[in-house]
């Protein structure tokens, strides 16, 4: 225990005066019976995590500023989810939030691959966590408390592919920072295709026409002809436009000696910044989703292990990953928030 933290304990009757974790169940509309966890780290960070939706992050607020984009559907219980193999019914329960996990057998557009019809963005974001729990430990070096939220999602079918995703979210109380540690495992006994995408979404008021997008890309490709029209403006955001379509870009991010890539965003009017660092050895692709529509005003900056277009396209271009029986792969993402531009990339 640090001396500073030990001194704080003398002033309080309960640790909730410094930070808090609250478990509850939503009761309204299509969110009825949806389990949720609110975390306040005591430094300005507030987040809502949904155990029934892959332990994804519904809302992220930093010092009274909403950072994430939330769709018109809002939080939706997975009981309302319909796996549409050919269309886009996924979007009726897609809350976006700060994080929606996509996969783990396919991502992005619906496709037919190896005789199987695959729906948009896969099933994993609508699978509840088993045995999720919260613990609070003291950091072995700083002595400051840290909040851990852990659970396992199992996506499997009889005679089919079988996967597990074990997630641990670590939230710091000494700084405005959190980490996501994921392990995806093939728990079956045949080789299985594996795709994952961390659909990280930014929204108003943090996201507006003043946003500064710092994505250190060595290569950038548009995903279609419409995106190609604004290739030189991929890093610029407009005010909300009527009738505009989405634009997507594939970036190849520069990496450090440790194999990690990093990007940052900064709003100079709000003086708020965020950075995301991730292990690019396993998350070796990166998709930007740019949408400046009225009401659909969102920026997605999404590390993943494949390209958009669905599993069929990834198989055809050689980017599709596979897991051998009992094989596992680890993913790591670090998110930092600050009252300044985060310039060190």
3D architecture notes:
There is one protein chain. This protein is mainly β. It has helices at 3-9, 225-228, 311-317, and strands spanning 20-25, 35-40, 45-50, 56-62, 65-66, 69-70, 96-97, 99-104, 111-113, 116-118, 130-138, 145-156, 162-172, 177-186, 192-202, 212-214, 217-222, 247-253, 260-267, 272-279, 285-292, 297-304, 321-323, 328-338. It has one domain: Beta-galactosidase, Chain A, domain 5 (Distorted Sandwich). It has an 8-stranded antiparallel β-sheet, with no helix packed on it. The protein starts with a helix and ends in a 7-residue tail after the last strand.
Descriptive labels:
Beta-galactosidase, Chain A, domain 5; 345 residues; seven-stranded antiparallel sheet; 46% strand; mainly beta; 3 helices; eight-stranded antiparallel sheet
Give a brief description.
With 345 residues, the chain is mainly β.
């Amino acid at each position: 225990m640090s001396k500073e933290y030990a001194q704080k304990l003398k002033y309080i009757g309960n640790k909730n005066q410094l930070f808090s974790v609250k478990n509850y169940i939503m009761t309204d509309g299509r969110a009825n019976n949806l389990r949720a966890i609110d975390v306040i780290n005591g430094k300005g960070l507030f987040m809502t995590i949904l155990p029934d939706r892959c332990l994804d992050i519904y809302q992220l607020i930093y010092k009274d500023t909403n950072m994430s984009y939330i769709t018109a559907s809002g939080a939706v219980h997975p009981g309302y989810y319909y796996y549409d193999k050919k269309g886009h019914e996924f979007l009726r329960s897609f809350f976006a939030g700060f994080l929606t996990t996509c996969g783990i057998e396919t991502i992005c557009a619906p496709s037919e691959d190896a005789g199987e019809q695959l729906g948009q963005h896969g099933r994993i974001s609508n699978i509840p966590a088993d045995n999720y729990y919260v613990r609070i430990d003291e950091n072995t070096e700083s002595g400051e408390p840290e909040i851990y939220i852990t659970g396992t999602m199992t996506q499997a079918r009889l005679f089919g592919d079988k996967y597990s995703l074990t997630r641990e979210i670590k939230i710091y109380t000494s700084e405005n920072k959190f980490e996501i540690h994921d392990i995806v495992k093939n728990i079956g006994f045949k080789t299985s295709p594996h795709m994952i995408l961390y659909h990280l979404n930014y929204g108003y008021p943090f996201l507006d026409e003043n946003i500064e997008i710092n994505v250190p890309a060595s290569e950038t490709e548009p995903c279609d002809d419409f995106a190609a029209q604004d290739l030189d403006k991929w890093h610029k955001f407009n005010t909300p436009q009527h009738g505009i379509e989405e634009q997507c870009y594939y970036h190849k991010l520069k990496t450090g000696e440790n194999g990690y890539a990093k990007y940052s965003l900064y709003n100079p009017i709000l003086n708020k910044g965020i950075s995301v660092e991730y292990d690019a050895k396993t998350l070796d692709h990166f998709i930007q989703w740019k949408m400046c529509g009225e009401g659909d005003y969102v920026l997605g900056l999404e590390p993943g292990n494949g390209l958009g277009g669905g599993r069929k396209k990834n198989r055809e271009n050689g980017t599709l990953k596979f897991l051998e029986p009992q094989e596992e792969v680890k993913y790591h993402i670090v998110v930092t928030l600050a009252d300044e531009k985060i310039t060190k990339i």
